[in-house]
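The instructor's notes for this session suggest beginning with a concrete chain rather than abstract definitions. Hand out the sequence below and ask the class to guess, before any prediction is shown, which regions might be ordered.
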Amino acid sequence: MEIRKAKAFLALAEELHFGRAAARIHMAQPPLSRLIRSLEDELGAQLFERTPRTVALTTVGAALVEPARELIMQSERMTELARSIQRGETGRVRLGFAGASLHRTVSSLVRRVRAQHGELTVELHGSQLSHPGMEKLRAGALDALIGRWDFLPRDIDSVVLAREELVVALPAGHRFVDADTVSAADVAGEPWVVLPGGSGATLSTRLHRLAARGRFVPRIVETAADSATQLLMVDAGAGIALTFSGVQENIPAHAVVFRPLSPSLGPVEVRLAWRRAGMGPALATFVDVATEQYPAGIDAP
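After discussion, reveal the predicted structure:
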């Protein structure tokens, strides 16, 4: 049953008068009569008993009143849903992030989005390290990505969510545990536990910058899958690690000690990134909330 025929049928079923039904749906009486006759032919059943003075529902017509009403309501819901999606009030955003070191930032942002736009679904994808996560973002497998990058591709836009510092993670009993800070010269001969590198990977870039400052080649002994595993390896005495203050704040470490670098290697920006060409209504709403919550502004690299 077409929507326009369902509306005509329901109007006549409730009014039981062709003139009043036609006026109700803003239609002349003859087209309404033809529409009802067409519907009866389509269904192969008489829906109304007609006399010169009365109109009454047949048994079949009475049985179709509720299904017709539900069909019209579903149509109206679909129309409103489509408008809501176009306004960015509903829909889905696939959000990637590296891991536990970003839990507070992710939860704070998603909580704000849900409070302001309850119909907008945020689908979380963890374990998206900066380089592989960026590849998924650019391929369209993710809509947005929270991470740390020193450099972003030209087709990616971003907004700064937080700024962190780099720290060195040391195992208990290390000779620099009692120092207030450590320098490039201090760590020149140390074994390093690192995360997977790649183009734009901040920790890899900053470790090489530290090595250039101290004029040493990093002796990498282990590559950890994520920051939590990296700290576990440091705790077990495999080596030391360069990491973020966000890791120190978010990931419990049994006996790992964190010390700042002196001089600093500069702040690290935690960013929400998205494809410039992939900005749909739902993502636009998500980015607007992020921009309101973190007013550092949107940057285009």
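Then share the key points. The chain has ten helices and 13 strands. Residues 3-86 form a domain with the Arc Repressor Mutant, subunit A fold (CATH 1.10.10.10).
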